[in-house]
Write a structure and sequence with these properties.
Blueprint (H helix, E strand, L loop, with lengths): L7 E3 L5 E3 L18 E3 L22 E3 L23 E3 L6 E2 L14 E3 L4 E2 L14 E3 L53 E4 L6 E5 L4 E8 L4 E4 L3 H8 L4 H34 L1
Parallel strand pairs: 3-4, 4-5, 5-7, 6-8, 7-9
Antiparallel strand pairs: 1-2, 10-11, 11-12, 12-13
Amino acid sequence: MRGVILVTICLASGHSETLCNNSDYAGLCDGSYTGTDIWLPRLSLSGTIPSELALLSATLLSLQIHVNDISGTLPTEMGLLTPIYGARFVVSDNKLSGSVPTELGQLTNIGESFLVGGNRLSGTIPQELTSLNPTHCAIMCSQHAWCQGPDTNQFACPLPTWSSNSPCSTGLSCVWYPPSPPSPPADQQDGAVIEMTGDDPKLIFGTIEKPICQLSIDRPNSRLVSTCSIQDSRRLEEAFDCEGKYAALEQKHKALQIEVSELRSLAEELKAAKME
């Protein structure tokens, strides 16, 4: 027993039944189904494609559920249906949305038809699909007459690189979307400024108004005082040469000390001259 599939199909008349009660697929839901094909086109089916269909990967050779009202996304589990050989994977002319799963590139045994056009698929076409080489291919309906709907799939550029003789590349188009707008500036940005208003200069990261943290010199105790947390330090180390900043701070402080000493000497000279 391979598993249980509970799939509901809704006919155009509004009458609802489960695939388990469908006389054409007796035993599908108890794992005893041994057929090789699922043929359900033009039945006004709704709902989504169940990922449980992958449980039939040991026997299923053809999946054809085109021209219905099936919505949702293409399950990534469809890539497990690798026995599909010389047959068809046809889900065109539905209401499927989302991106094309990269896992579909594993269906390299498909020999006849790979049709996913006429849906509402978007995103970029995965490079993995270039490994497929079916006789008939329609990623967009403009590529093959078997796909009946308009080109409602709209894929983003760039397109994958196909071989020159691949039917999946003929007539394929894409749209170049504008780049996303830049993010607004944050209230606090990484940066460093030297504040000279105190007795000792301070190295402030962030902004003076909203500092992330700061470094200062404790002269009486001959030490460097930091309010930066480990998390701040790790982030700041990626943006700044802290060792260079410290050296510049020390150099600036020494220059200020020299200037203060010269000013004091000049003041003493002026005071002495005035007393004379």
